[in-house]
TrEMBL record:
SUPFAM superfamilies: Winged helix' DNA-binding domain. The keyword DNA-binding applies. InterPro entries: HTH_MarR-typ, WH-like_DNA-bd_sf, WH_DNA-bd_sf. This is MarR family winged helix-turn-helix transcriptional regulator. Residues 2-138 form the HTH marR-type domain. It comes from Methylophilus glucosoxydans. Keywords: DNA-binding, Transcription, Transcription regulation. The keyword Electron transport does not apply.
């Protein structure tokens, strides 16, 4: 019985992982950037002049990961850095015309299907899911916890 349930759980993880990865592949083909870069681009377009620290916080990723993704977008001329109008010491991010063109042709949802689905679950279901996933994670290699701050599209 335990073996059968373990295999069923493994199959469910495969379904989730495969379902989550497919849209990221489509984004790379249609937009020429990674799913993570598209998510950042969308967040920057939604919140003009957002700084890297706040952007990382909004996306629940590590700040250094966010900085690397931002630099890739700047290099591709999809995002520009500019001094914020109210505080010249702070640098904000804005989407360029080329960045808006990428967003216009991007498949939806830009932040990925999993965050969208998780937001549809009620609080009790999320608590149960988090508790169950925590049990699985504690059985895994402790180093894998660092992956919590990585965007799904980069995995």
């Amino acid at each position: 019985m335990q073996n059968t349930l373990a295999k069923e759980a493994l199959k469910q993880f495969r379904i989730i992982f495969g379902t989550v990865r497919q849209p990221f592949r489509e984004i790379e083909v249609s937009c020429g950037i990674s799913g993570s870069q598209l998510w950042l681009l969308h967040e920057i377009a939604t919140h003009p002049e957002l700084g890297v620290s706040r952007l990382a916080e909004n996306l629940a990723i590590h700040q250094s990961t966010c900085s690397l993704l931002v630099e890739k977008l700047v290099k591709k001329q999809l995002v520009q850095k500019q001094r914020q109008s109210e505080d010249q010491r702070k640098v904000g991010l804005i989407v360029t015309d080329a960045g808006h063109a990428v967003l216009a042709k991007a498949p939806k949802p830009v932040d990925g299907i999993l965050p969208q689905v998780l937001h549809t679950l009620d609080i009790e279901a999320l608590k149960e899911l988090n508790a169950s996933l925590n049990m699985v994670i504690t059985k895994l290699d402790a180093q894998s916890k660092a992956l919590a701050d990585q965007p799904l599209g980069d995995m």
